[in-house]
Each structure stands twice: as C-alpha cells, then as structure tokens.
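Entry type: protein chain
Record version: 2
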Amino acid sequence: MPPENPVRQKRGGIGQPVGPPDLRPPGTTHVDYPTVLVAHGDEEVRSTLVDCLQRNGFHVLEADDWAHVFDVVRVHSRLIHLLLADVSMEARLQMLKKYRSKLQVLIVGKPVDTEDVLAKVRQLLRSPPSPPSIR
C-alpha cells in the first residue's frame, strides 16, 4: 500500500483550488491567485478563516497542527504567499525559513475578526515581506 501523502488538505487536493472555481474569471486558475496556508488547531477558527479567504478569491491550504504545517511547507511545490498561524505555533516559525525563506506570517489568535484578518492579509500581500510575527 502506498504511503499516505503528508499534505492532508480537507477541502481539496494538493495543488487544487479550495475556493469555488465559478467565482474566478474565465481563463484563470488557482495559480493566478495568492496561496494562503491556514494553520490553526481550532477547527472552527480554521474553517472560518478558510471560508472567508475562499470567498475573497484566495487559494487556501489547511493544516491543523505544527507537523502538518511543516509537511505542507516542505512538500507543496508552488509558492505559498502567506501563513496564517495559530499563536501556539509562533515559537517554531523560524524552522520554516529553511524551506520558505520569504514566507510571510500573520499570527492569529482567538476570537477571530475575519474582516480584520482579511484586511491584514491584503495589506501583507501588497507589501514586501516583513518580520515573521505580525499582530
């Protein structure tokens, strides 16, 4: 039996857009949209963030714990523009720099204000990479 793929994306397959393709202009693919990895241990928070980002045209990957984040970052072949990470993962972020030196990170706690997070995501993706922890 083949080994399990370490990238366990609950809402789509690896390299597949998570957002509804009918919201995208004809002739475009998920590659044309920024990729955001949402990493949060709380399923409700993660789901809320994923849904918000999908509705706004982002290609979204998910991870529910640190090991999964590391696997996605290591295995995913395309550019990951931004990591939305749980506060509990903050101490380990420097380890990711080995694989994704230009990865931008936004630390997300609870409760989550999706409008605030979306505004910060848009701001980060318009600006050059900044320090790894932004609150």
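Comment: The helical segments are 43-55, 66-75, 93-96, 114-126.
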